[in-house]
Amino acid sequence: MERACRVAIDAQGAVAALNAAGQRLLGCAGVDPGAVIGRACRVALAAQPVVAERLLEALDGAERPSRAELTLSPQGDRPALTIGYTIAAVRDPAGAVAGAVLQFRDLTPYERNAEQERLRERHR
């Protein structure tokens, strides 16, 4: 099972953390992490603008659904992927919003298994 992907931004919207699995799925694979960290998330995650928007929206500190899905844009020869994600504001000790974190996983293998099961059921 692939490990969870994570991306976090600070209160100004700059990328504060992005793990290797997240880099790969978000189209930043092969990019030096130092070139991503500290950059505005809209710039660093330009290949996946919907992810940047979700992160920036979370800076309002409002409660978000515990789980949601979205479709990532195709990258090169890779088709669009569906990810399942959770997102939350990160708060400092005083309770002020200090950033946001998005944790996600590629749901494509699960969707493929579900489709294969539906096809098997249809042929019974």
Based on the model shown, name its key terms.
5-stranded antiparallel beta sheet; 124 residues; 5 strands; alpha+beta; 5 helices
Order of helices and strands: EEHHHHEEEH
Give the proportion of residues in helices.
25-40%
- Shape, per Cα inertia axes: globular
How many helices does DSSP assign?
Answer: 5
Poorly predicted regions:
none
- In angstroms, what is the radius of gyration? 16 Å
Beginning-to-end CA distance, first to last residue: 30 Å
Largest sheet: 5 strands, antiparallel
Bin the strand percentage. 25-35%
Structural class determined from secondary elements: alpha+beta
Strand numbers in spatial order across the main sheet: 2-1-5-4-3
Mean pLDDT: 86
Question: Could you tell me the number of beta strands?
Answer: 5
Can you describe this structure in just a few lines?
This protein is an alpha+beta fold and about 120 residues long. The chain has helices at about 20-25, 35, 40-45, 50-60, 110-120; strands spanning about 5-10, 15-20, 70, 80-90, 95-105.
Could you walk me through the main structural features you see in this protein, from its secondary elements to its overall organization?
- There is one protein chain.
- The chain has helices at residues 20-25, 33-36, 41-44, 49-58, 108-122; strands spanning 5-10, 15-18, 68-72, 81-91, 97-106.
- It is of the alpha+beta class.
- It has a five-stranded antiparallel β-sheet.
- The radius of gyration is 16 Å and the shape is globular.
